[in-house]
């Protein structure tokens, strides 16, 4: 039960802050101070728990009157602790860096909302049975949907919100179907062997829930919450899914299924990386950052390299969180960004060293090449967005800058805190050439970009011609991943079936309905007599 | 004193008394709620067939009552039904004022419950048909609006339900005739056929389901919620008693496939029809049909756990129906037709009623976190063990129904107006919030009250 303390603390602090603001007229700075202290306590408590992971909470007789054997188990394993820590680090980053965004939106709603979402996200990460996963995912969806519906005023964004909610729910229902057909009711980790159907349900359900399909206009665009609460909103669902996937034993015996998923994931991650690097700014590129990492994580999972997937998750959350919260640039924060990029590139003995783990045993050089280029593009995009010109017109007080920088630095050192407990695994992942190659390539590309050489090259006629097929492929992939074709197809199918169904309903509800009912009964009876009855 | 006197005679007499108190609405509501709660508590706490001690007074509570050679029996096996029915009667009577419907709902409601209880208690079973028919006739004043001709849905309800009576009487009579020679399979099949069609009409089983969405369009949602909450459950229990009482029937190798097929057709067809539906009132009807289909599937499994699943499912079913009926009533009372076009953007004008409608519909589908989720999950798991193909079809039926709910959600949550209002009264908000919280709490912690109510689940019908 002790393991639930961070969640209880977060909810308690969120409620307490709301109550305090309601009762006393506190200044925004005082509220921020209380919030920052609260999240720091939670962050420290998560670190303390890692020294000795306490026992979890479980409800074995969850079903009423014993009608099923499903159990609820909430616990932290050595692996899932990493995701819990990443999420709380992100929360600390959000609250600390919000000092430079005072007054830009309803800060209190942002902070309390972020704390509640993190609490719910932690509960999802703690989930160790299918039932717990289904319930906590649904809580995330409802909280997220509630927040977005409350703040959305544009019909286009509203449609995107509902479609995303629908997609996520379908993902949850697929995992529910996996639970129904797998007969594994007690714990996910126990279930090392799934049938191909159940495995497919899990993979597709998890992919739909990663929150990257369908690609849409950013839900939080033009909303003041876009940077802070928006970052937590975008990360909670994928983190909970990756935490779930790391508990599933990858089933490599289903080669056909794995190969199909593999190919899709490869295209997705490469496409996402290109879109990320070419995005106007980090916020408009955010869906592509998530898309690309989701693809990469899925590839690692399909290859059975869970450690690699964890390494990629660290980059996704920490580097992503850093750049999405990076709204005010300073010398220290730029240095912190560069330090982060170097520390996450996967050098030996660094927190993300396992991301190059497959280089040694991979027979497929095409795969390696695509993944290698994808990594390069992602890091290049990160650096490009770090060096982007920002609107720094409104001066910030020194204490605001101090805490803002502290928030970013805290995020940057978080992977190193994780490293303390993962050193034994990291030691085994020694690969120097790939990360060094990656670093050199990124440096060259950054120099080309900074010196405007790239812009000059791209404007040349032969280069323009060379880019035509790539642009075309990009357009095609863009329209595929937006899934508008899918929804149009659904609408067509719906219209196609709706007419005969309405006709049939009108027939039964019309004047001759009773007679028609008996005719249908006779028809059904004839089938029954032939098929079931003698 | 006997249980039939307490649960049949007393409520019926009370309904007659309340009928004459119609002008004193508040008093009538207070009496209605108090009587329902007392009857519920009595079923919950008292052991039927034992002595009831009130201080120095001891009253023996018999379980049977004989009238004109017919006997009415209400034993411990009926405690769940009685406690359940009177719990929801109290809720429904409490909501009368909130839903702004005629106060005559309470006396007629009591009378309907009393007659339906009699239908469940009467022996021989044959007479249930007549009593259910009486209950239908008693419900007619609730279905009509003074000065307006009855709608097609009301007429269909009376016709379809009344048609069941002669079929069940005839089937029962045939069955009685062959008790002496059960080897006469031809007549046995004829009897089962008549009874089967009779039950199909009662339970609105496909293709006799068309009257339900029509009825919900014709009458006030609060009344349709009550009628469609009570009748299908009682007739389902009568059917269970019937199957349980005939050993040859429950051991027949054809019962399971027939019920499975019928249940699956109901779930899938209801889901598909709901997907193209645009009116919230008709969705209420389809929700009832979906519940009936799933109940038949639970019966088809013929195991102790499946019967338990069925009985446990009645509680979230009724809670969702009550919330749905109240939410729809609020829209109608405020002059909003609850269809896709008129509900557009209503979440900003009636946030609680809109949430209540969506939550109740999601609960019916078995959406995680909500009331029916544990029972749907359990039923699907049991079906998957027995027949995975059927489980896939049922899941598809639920997903198509979910699609219709999400279509409604898309419309209802549209940002059509700037800013948020609150169109409901405080009383309505309290009822709606309680309804939503009840559905969430039984969805998240379904076993929370299990220990307290487990005595109600003893002596359930045996299907195998």
**Whole-number count of domains of chain A:** 3
The total domain count of chain B is 2
The general outline of chain A is globular
Helix percentage of chain B:
over 70%
User: How many strands of chain B?
Assistant: 5
Sequence stretches where pLDDT stays below 50 over 5 or more residues of chain B: none
Strand order of the largest sheet of chain B: 3-4-5
Major sheet characteristics of chain A: 2 strands, antiparallel
Count helical runs of chain A.
19
* C-alpha termini separation of chain A: 58 Å
Series of secondary-structure elements of chain A, N-terminal to C-terminal: HHEEHHHHHHHHHHHHHHHHH
Query: How is the biggest beta sheet of chain B arranged?
Result: 3 strands, antiparallel
Structural class computed from helices and strand pairing of chain B: mainly alpha
Shape of chain B: globular
Strand content of chain A: under 5%
Low-confidence stretches of chain A: none
Strand order, sheet with most strands of chain A? 1-2
The string of secondary-structure elements of chain B, in order, is HHEEEEHHEHHHHHHHHHHHHHHH
Q: Whole-Å distance between the termini of chain B? A: 34 Å
What proportion strand of chain B? under 5%
